[in-house]
Amino acid sequence: MKKAVVSSLLLMALLLVPFAVVAEGQQEAPAADSGVSRAEVLQGAIDEHFSALSANGNYMIGQADFLEKVRAGEDMLILDIRRADDYAKGHIKGAVNVPWGPAIAKSIDFLPTDKPVMVYCYSGQTANQANALLNFIGVDSKSVKYGWNFGISKVEGFDDVVTTEASQFPGKTGIEVNSVLRETFVDYFEGLADVSGTMYASNIISEENAKKIVDAKDDNVYILSIRQEKDYNEGHIAGAELISWGDGMQKKFSSLPTDKKIIVYCYSGQTAGQTVAGLRVLGYDAVSLKGGMGTGGNDPLGWGNKGYPVVSE
Q1: 2 is a domain residue
Q2: N or C: which end of the chain has fewer CB within 10 A?
Q3: Could you tell me the CATH number of the domain that includes residue 221?
């Protein structure tokens, strides 16, 4: 079981500093009580998450494995972060509906300290942002691979664990979260209310809008591929740079520009969701490409599935 709070470094940091990006060139005041700065607390959470991706199965669980756990009655909290109307039409038994956005911020005191959390959305992309933030604050969280639309609902016999009966949080859990990480978590999800309906809604950019930016060769945008080097070499979006997904990838985040919009893409949008969450927590203006490069098959999402061009230089 993952610890309910993060590392001892974070436990020491009893800070009361609001979540805001530190302006370039400014020095950040350390915490009066601990001598640990807000930036160090956030970096510590990022390091812990991205240094142990393989050990934690990339913080994801396969859709079939997830459903087996549901059928076995394993003790876990399931979060359905889809819209309330879709939840009402049918959801996994026992899942609590916490729609993507400010509602997640309000859930923090109801998160468990003694059991894992499983999160699913539509495709896995927003769930992985939420999943990363949950892990940053010390919750043992995994996202369900490919979400409801492309994962859960594609598993044969899935409907035997689907219900329309709503579930609620049992109550507040007494979870202890470092104050800086708590504020970061709350501000992240409350801030989503301000971007709905924009080009970058939910910190995601559509394939069509991304292509317009690529075609325009917009110098204010930086494109980051987090696919593996072999796949990058075989074909990537023109102008994209590479930081491959894997243990320790966060060590290269400091090479990214702080003055540009960063579009992150992977294979299906899921690991890019976690990466975007980490980058945004560190103050980067990052969004993920809807559907990533695209997984092929019946999945309609992604750059490749739209037939958009790639380069191999």
Answers
A1: no
A2: C
A3: 3.40.250.10
